[in-house]
Amino acid sequence: MKTGSTDPNRDERRVQIKRAALKVFAHHGLMGTKMSMIAKEAGISDGLSYRYFKSKDEILAELVKDAVEGSNEAFALIRNMPGSPLEKIRALTKEILQEDNHHFILMQQVMSADNLPKEIAELMKDHDTAGMIDTVTSVVAAGQQAGQFLEGNPRDIAMWYLTSIVGLMNLRTHELEGYRPPDIDFMMRLVVKPTLL
How many domains, in total, are found in the chain? Predict the structure, then answer.
């Protein structure tokens, strides 16, 4: 199916389906998601969903492309934004912990999945995981030099911070009764000296 349509209604419907699919993938995982579930979330019939996308893998490929671009842009923004290391890590934490950050959850699912479709595996080659870690490491190192961040190996601290956020985002997908994600200040305690919070 053509993705470069000039029909605004068609484009709006595709966006509607992709938004629904993102939510369903985030909550049910790559394997647990079915086209019928996406159609139901989008409020359309199964048959109608196939007029816009051939399969859930086609939708997933578009979502992964968007998520890779968004992730790379977010970390480039953090790397290049003005402000103190404290302001940068706060902005990053806020971005990741957004209530509807389904793109981040999807990326974690895809990164840990086995046997990805070839097209999606190719798209993931553009995801700059090393750059993401390097960005957080450099912010931590700068924060340590400014006396704002905890002492220790900056890369270790960056990895622990990222691992903690990933784990919390994955918990959110399981919709545990009574679970609510921590606030930004709690997450900041992983890297920032307590006296600065």
Answer: 1
